[in-house]
């Protein structure tokens, strides 16, 4: 492992980061990723005046490399505690729960305006006229996709390179979310951010999709998740979101994807999964799938560590 940490160290520090996240949750004030977002916005305003590929590459390097190197220096001096702290700052498992479970709660109470507002905070689609089924679908899709981006991709790169690996992944993922749009402003400037995020997510996304297959509650569910992954993922615009979301939808027995409103226009997206449309209760089912996948990854990390210890 590039971090110099042993397999047992990685497993223990992974567990420590997840526990810290569960206990403390997302920082309410002065969150490092919020500060990074402001830094990235300032860099983009300076460099993205002509929308060039080279400017985007320079912007990515200026935003990500110094902070990743700083994380490496801090981890080198601070040891295990810094690795665990860096993972805690990067992982977003509790944040997924805290942003999505309240949507389900609002829908159960019949408070559609609050459910719309809560959903608008986590998705880019227009929720102003969304009904219960639309909101349940949006939240479920967000949970499945961001399970990879906020949790499993972070854990994977932590296993590869410790705390600095987690920082690298989350900063790159954040830049993709900010710059990776195919519009006039970001088509060229954001190309580098989008492609690097695709590369960093290539392995974690497929491990996440495989985990969703494994954790489907029935044998039929496992077969369905595998089939949806193989048949539907190629049609999705993102090479990594496609496998994750189609596999997760199949595991839950849901039909996701389809129509969604963006900037006042109805966009017909490829289908995801097979089964019934998402309902309020499926938000909690999707959350449990992400939570259980986290437990699976931690268990695998400890199994690998023990295997190496006895080898």
TrEMBL record:
One protein family per Pfam: CobD_Cbib
Subcellular location: Cell membrane
MF term (GO), any: ABC-type vitamin B12 transporter activity
Keyword Hydrolase: no
Highest taxon above the source species: Bacteria
Pathway assigned to this chain's UniProt record: Cofactor biosynthesis; adenosylcobalamin biosynthesis
Keywords, ordered alphabetically: Cell membrane, Cobalamin biosynthesis, Membrane, Transmembrane, Transmembrane helix
Keyword rRNA-binding: no
Sequence intervals crossing the membrane: 6-24, 57-77, 150-172, 289-307
InterPro entries associated with the record: Cobalamin_biosynth_CobD/CbiB
One GO BP annotation of this record: cobalamin biosynthetic process
Main location class: membrane
GO cellular component terms, semicolon-separated: plasma membrane
UniProt topology in membrane: Multi-pass membrane protein
Functional summary from the UniProt entry: Converts cobyric acid to cobinamide by the addition of aminopropanol on the F carboxylic group.
Family: Belongs to the CobD/CbiB family.
Annotated protein name in UniProt: Cobalamin biosynthesis protein CobD
């Amino acid at each position: 492992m590039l971090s110099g940490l042993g397999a047992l160290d990685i497993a223990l520090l992974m567990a420590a980061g997840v526990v810290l996240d569960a206990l403390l949750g997302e920082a309410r004030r002065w969150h490092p990723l919020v500060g990074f977002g402001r830094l990235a916005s300032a860099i983009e305003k300076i460099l993205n005046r002509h929308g060039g590929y080279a400017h985007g590459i320079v912007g990515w390097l200026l935003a990500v490399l110094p902070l990743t190197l700083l994380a490496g220096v801090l981890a080198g001096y601070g040891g295990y505690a810094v690795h665990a702290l860096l993972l805690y700052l990067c992982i977003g498992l509790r944040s997924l729960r805290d942003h999505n479970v309240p949507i389900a709660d609002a829908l159960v109470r019949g408070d559609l305006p609050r459910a719309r507002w809560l959903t608008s905070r986590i998705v880019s689609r227009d929720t102003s006229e969304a009904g219960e089924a639309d909101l349940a679908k949006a939240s479920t899709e967000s949970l499945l996709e961001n399970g990879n981006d906020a949790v499993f991709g972070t854990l994977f790169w932590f296993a590869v390179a410790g705390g600095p690996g987690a920082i690298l992944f989350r900063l790159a993922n954040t830049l993709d979310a900010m710059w990776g749009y195919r519009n006039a402003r970001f088509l060229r400037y954001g190309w580098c951010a989008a492609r690097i995020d695709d590369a960093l997510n290539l392995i974690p996304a497929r491990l996440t999709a495989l985990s969703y297959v494994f954790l489907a509650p029935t044998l039929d569910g496992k077969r369905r998740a595998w089939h949806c992954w193989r048949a539907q993922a190629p049609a999705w615009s993102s090479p990594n979101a496609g496998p994750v979301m189609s596999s997760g939808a199949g595991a839950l027995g849901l039909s996701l994807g389809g129509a969604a409103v963006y900037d006042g226009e109805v966009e017909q997206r490829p289908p995801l999964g097979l089964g019934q449309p998402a309902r309020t209760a499926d938000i909690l089912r999707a959350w449990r799938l992400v939570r259980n996948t986290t437990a699976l990854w931690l268990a695998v990390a400890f199994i690998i560590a023990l295997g190496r210890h006895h080898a």
